[in-house]
Amino acid sequence: MPLPRDLQLPRTKLSAVLGEPEATRLPRPLDLEALSLLLLLSYTHTARARYPEGDFSFRSAASAGALYPTEIYAAAHEIKGLDNGLYHFAIQTHSLDPLRKGDVFGMTQREGSHLTFFLTAIFFRSAWKYRARAYRYHLLDTGHVVENLILALKASHLPFSVTYDFDDGEVNRLLGLDDQKEVAVAVIDVPGGKASAAENKKPVAPLSEPVLQAGRVSAKETDYPAIREMHEAGIRRAKSPSTALRVCDREQRVCAEKEMIHELGITPKTWAPVETSGPWPEIIGYPDAVFRRRSRRNFIKKPMEREEVNALLWSLCRTDGSPYDQSAAIGFLAGQAEGMAPGFYLLDRKREAWSLVAAGEFMARSTSMCLDQEWLVNAGVHFLFLANLEMIERTWGPRGYRYAMLTAGRLGQRLYVAAEAMGMGCCGIGALYDGEAMDMLGLNESSWLLYLVAAGNVKRS
Predict the structure, then answer these.
(1) For residue 7, what is the enclosing H or E element?
(2) CA angle 92, 94, 97 (to 5 degrees)
(3) Could you tell me if 228 and 262 lie in one domain?
(4) Does residue 310 sit in the same domain as residue 419?
(5) Containing H/E element for 382?
(6) Are 171 and 105 spatial neighbours (Cβ–Cβ below 8 Å)?
């Protein structure tokens, strides 16, 4: 079912979208054009490369190795121009494939939703290259798409809620997934639909075999059991963040209200506020920043201007109040940043402040840590997404690892789009020597670097 393509794009800047207060109700009834716009701004083809074996299309959300494991499914209820049901979004043709008809929400515990997006990851899409480490990229890459979708919802002034907590088995059955190969990892609801009466609950019927096989990406797929074991660990011991935020661990005296930034084994002494005065130096609007986003690596030795650095820091401080925000902390290495001495810094998102942890030149050592990818040394700033995994385990159980990686992916994508809006380059790195990262940053033995995103000035053609 082709989606409308003649759409009115938002005429706004990314800074305005990020500063937009969260909507509390639908400003108007949702229709097929609104859904099409959300999907276009979230996940679309943006460029094409030609190879002897065929064309390859790049997408608006970043992905490790450009392998794109993430898929989007949408459950619709009372969307004008669209029958109630469950659909798969076909990115190549910008269309919907119907999977189930009728009241989909009556088959699940999800009530009162007008529109629900389910984001999944297909394991083998990344695992053929990255093997067991691919699970990191499944979560980071899905976090990239989650952030794009949230930006689209904010730009459309629509209310939403994000959850990484759901009945995995129920959702996977609803979507018709072979959960040995593809799994749901994030759900985003747009409220406003009518709740189904309890007596109208229907069992989730299995979908046809062709649908179950639709996620197969190769005639010969190698199974990497460690990926499934990591994912299934979160299924067995999942905890609700709303519960975790209220319950304090009596033995460890660690409560979910504790902020991750204070759990890394680092104790900064002084803090300075992030400067927020003045507009961003944006050169293109929000939609173009999404569509033009690339993993740009041709950094040049030119300092980032103070306004650019402040804009990126301010963008990372924006939060929708989700408890998942507490699952990852942010640091950064300044190399070529106007007004900042070279060194390792921490960013306090809650208080919108930064602190110098250790002065010195870190960029060369960081580049070595990232498998000696020499282009990194010329970046202006290396943003670091960090987490104390022991604290996550105590607070949320094994499922908390999903929260941290998805959060890091969301914030990484925000940097990609913000850098593009200001004419800078940006590129994420998930392949790194974990032990070297801990040593370089002086982290305690429970804390890890999850993701590194480099930003800076690039040579433009």
Answers:
(1) none
(2) 95
(3) no
(4) yes
(5) strand 381-388
(6) no
